Amino acid sequence: MYWKEMLGAIAKPDKNAKRYELSTDYKYEGLQEYPRPQLERKSYINLNGKWDYRIISGKGQVVSSGLIEVPFSPETALSGTDRHTLLPEEMLEYTKRFTIEKLKKTKHLLLHFGAVDQVAFVSLNGINLGVHEGGYTSFTFDITDYIVEGENELKVKVRDYTDRIGYARGKQSIEPSGMWYSAQSGIWQTVWMEWVPKVYVSNITMIPDIDNDKLNVELRVSELKGQVTITASNPDLIKDYNVDSIKDDKIFVTVKLNKYKLWSPEEPNLYFLNIEYGKDSFSTYFAMRHFGVGEDENGIPRLTLNHKPYFMNGVLDQGYYPESLMTPPSDAAMINDIETIKSLGFNMIRKHCKIEPMRWYFHCDRIGMIVWQDIVNGGTKYDMNMICNIPTVVRPFGNTRDKNKLFLRFTGRNTDKSKEVWFKECAETINQLKSVPCIGQWCLFNEGWGQFDARSCLEYAKKYDNSRPIDAASGWFHEGCGDVFSEHVYFEDLKVKLSNKPYVVSEYGGFSLKVGNHVKRDAVYGYKKYDHPKDLQDAYECTMDKIKSLKDEGLSAAVYTQATDIEDELNGLMTYDRKVQKLY
């Protein structure tokens, strides 16, 4: 029965299908909200808005120019450009002029970028500030020595190599179709500045310890010249706090807690702090919770929340919008997606092939939504026949290291440069998101995309965060490591495979339905296609009943594909424009 569906899923999609204009109803209002909720200061200068841009070909010719609305990539409708797709040999140049009315001689001015895809060369007033590689993580420059009173000129030059070098790219493709989406480039998250004292906190990491009623805090500081003061909005929360040690530019603080409630999707309790270091002051928040692995009363391995077996009922979410691709058009857009997913009975989102703006994670924290976070896939070109089509058709497949030796040569991660890139991007991702309470698991590799030596990669990731489980290889090409046994099951019957690790179905479903004119392209991609809403609903309910029945047999988590339609993929709980909810 499923052979026809399986072969249809690996068939080549129509790259020339007709395209349509499509948009959500969310109103873009400049994305003015403070972009970093866990280190929020009163000083805030938002640089989103109109910038000058031009795209220069490899031969030095200007192929596109004018005004662009930052933080939207030039390939998007909300950018206001002609939507030219940046090619690997082209250069995208931004220019922003801003005015500093008066310099603050006792303070520093920091320039922050939420994300720029892929390589950003930044200069201010003709002086090079530096280069950032990687299209999904944030970065900062101290521009104190380069700003002047009056007008300043900020330039950002961007190269986007897509799959030429090995940087993270997620699902982006210059020739999108099927499971691959429109490529985008350049600045796609908020650009902003803030004044800070000369002695300030540049980063904070918070790890809760519910077993010992404490919060472990690590402050990275510009200079070791301040005293740490911590107060809570709830006066009964903090019992006391102590500076445990100081190492290089880091201060380690233990905050002992007196009265608190644990965080869970059912009760998403958050606690807010104000931290002072010398003259620096900022607000932050945390939650008390623990994600781990254990056994239930029958000795079956389980994922746990707060040391109790907890079934994680998840949905795959890739965070794309028809008018803005990876950039959410507004705070309301992010909130509505999370709340809709929760209203459908899910308590977990697998954030697939993307890192969201930090405000998205804050909304998951406060709404109550566990997040499984992918390390965004990259590498050079994948051989899709060898790492996707054959494993899809020939199952079971690739569950031991010996079987994988042949196929891992085709994953796009064979050069030293591409491996070096993965380690760097993995560390940056974990460091950026480590303090986020809702993140319950990391996923290092998906279906072999950019995969190499998962065991050493797992050991590397654990050095940066050993406080939550890690799925070393989601789907197949398991290399005998990781905290869970993770499979994708789209065509076979769902069943539990017991091992010495929690068994999770990290992708299933993929039920597709085309809804009227709520589509971006006249194409349908999915694993099981339906023509009528009732048939889709019936199949969905039947599958959900099966998932529920497998919980008692040892299924620890399941991830339904997916939250919304995206371009050719019409397997969403909602249409791409979020105007029709297909399933209830």
SS strand fraction: 25-35%
Task: Point out poorly predicted stretches.
Answer: none
Give the termini distance in whole angstroms.
27 Å
Largest sheet, spatial ordering of strands: 29-28-27-26-25-34-31-30
SS elements, strand count: 34
Average predicted confidence as pLDDT: 94
Total helical segments: 8
Rg calc: 24 Å
Secondary-structure class = alpha/beta
Strand count, sense and barrel status of the largest sheet are:
8 strands, parallel
Shape: globular
Helix content: 10-25%
InterPro entries: Beta-gal/glucu_dom_sf, Beta-mannosidase-like_N2, Galactose-bd-like_sf, GH, GH2_Domain-Containing, Glyco_hydro_2_cat, Ig-like_fold, Ig-like_GH2
Domain Glycoside hydrolase family 2 catalytic: 303-532
Family: Belongs to the glycosyl hydrolase 2 family.
Protein name: Glycoside hydrolase family 2
Description of the molecule:
Residues 87-163 form the Beta-mannosidase-like galactose-binding domain. One of its GO terms (molecular function) is hydrolase activity, hydrolyzing O-glycosyl compounds. With 584 residues, the protein is an alpha/beta fold. The strands form nine sheets. The chain has an eight-stranded parallel sheet, covered by helices on one side. It has a six-stranded antiparallel sheet with strand order 3-2-4-10-7-8, with no helix packed on it. It has a four-stranded antiparallel sheet with strand order 1-14-5-9, with no helix packed on it. The longest helix is centred in the last third of the chain and has 19 residues, at 533-551. The protein is globular. The two termini are 27 Å apart.
